[in-house]
């Protein structure tokens, strides 16, 4: 229980760095297990630290707080469809349908949205998803390359607005909407943002 490690006295910064990387990895592995098993709200720093076999203060040292740890631990792949292979006039419908299906079965996405709205680490992770996953899709369909970032941001504002009201704030009329109703309302707006001529 005293934590003695025979190989921990290796000289130089590389040994310290290896131990640091090992600790980070152990924390992230334990965090993913706890977030998956307990959900974001119920997972605790203490339980994650116990899973990683370290003191809770070490978790705070590396990641600051639960929000920062969650943002580092989750890897969100939206698995967005290849828009280049689709007819241009179905882009809005396909994108909204895909987002809804993904969000309906992903507690991680809901937790990340909650964290992203509340803290910098989560916001940076959301920005990364926008930059790495949504922007390339917008590039496939937008008529003007210079407008891709703005058009993608407008599309994201609609998708995240629905997600916030339906899954995080749980505003009753938003929760009550059938997914097909949401698609019918939202698809033409996304279609216009992504493919219509510039106003």
Shape: elongated
Multimerization status: single chain
For the secondary structure, the number of strands is 0
| H/I helix tally | 10
Based on secondary structure, the structural category is: mainly alpha
Question: In percent, how helical is the residue content?
Answer: over 70%
Overall structural domain count: 2
The averaged pLDDT comes out at 88
Give me the strand/helix succession. Answer: HHHHHHHHHH
Q: Provide the low-confidence segments as ranges.
A: 1-11
Instruction: Sketch the major β-sheet.
Output: none
Radius of gyration: 21 Å
Proportion of residues in β-strands = under 5%
Q: How far apart lie the N and C ends? A: 67 Å
Can you give a write-up of this model?
- This protein has 199 residues and is mostly helical.
- It has helices spanning 12-42, 45-52, 56-63, 66-73, 91-104, 107-118, 120-141, 148-168, 172-176, 179-195.
- The chain has two domains: 12-73, Orthogonal Bundle (Arc Repressor Mutant, subunit A); 83-195, no CATH class.
- The chain is built from ten helices and no strands.
- It is elongated.
- 24% of the residues are buried.
- The model is unreliable at 1-11 (pLDDT under 50).
Brief summary of the model shown:
The chain has helices at 12-42, 45-52, 56-63, 66-73, 91-104, 107-118, 120-141, 148-168, 172-176, 179-195. It has 199 residues and is an all-alpha fold. It folds into 2 domains: 12-73, Homeodomain-like (Arc Repressor Mutant, subunit A, Orthogonal Bundle); 83-195, no CATH class.
